[in-house]
């Protein structure tokens, strides 16, 4: 049962040669540090300089085509920036800095904390979407509860946004006969939303206003905007 193990041979490159032809069948054995260094140096050199057949060579004409294609896609994307969906996404992720405080027009008002350029989205009018019947019921209930102002914004003939108890800063925007903003109804994923756009350049600490465009009624609501062309009433 006892037999002499053959002497381990080394190849010409200094690496050990496996007698059985398989490294796993010979069990664990140590490798000299010199051999390790030789192997590591060879592997690093191979990694730093990839084979010539694997290097990608780009033709100048092909590079020009790729760049022109990128420019075309960029221009098409820029041209589609006027879509309501893209603008609404910009409104969500690039919100304007606004604050509400006491207004000289009426009670509370909304003011800009940063310069706003013309024709930019300022804020969305957020609230609960309700039907006309529910709006009439809530308006009467708000009067019974002593709530003097109800913040309801009509979207269309059937839908009204109620921001009286569930809304954002947009409900504090006051009316003006000479406003610096205007309201626009946009459709995002088959849902109508009201967004306030800037009509002109708005400076810091300038109050945000828009025309309520109330329907003409016999009982008039006085307007306190104080502008030069003030109509005197909201309706």
UniProtKB/TrEMBL annotation:
Keywords: Chromatin regulator, Methyltransferase, Nucleus, RNA-binding, S-adenosyl-L-methionine, Transcription, Transcription regulation, Transferase. Residues 96-213 form the SET domain. One of its GO terms (cellular component) is Set1C/COMPASS complex. PROSITE patterns: POST_SET, SET. Its main location: nucleus. The keyword Lipid metabolism does not apply. Residues 219-235 form the Post-SET domain. The keyword Metal-binding does not apply. GO terms for biological process: methylation. One of its GO terms (molecular function) is RNA binding. It is found in: Nucleus. PANTHER family: HISTONE-LYSINE N-METHYLTRANSFERASE SETD1, HISTONE-LYSINE N-METHYLTRANSFERASE SETD1B. This is SET1B methyltransferase. It comes from Zapornia atra.
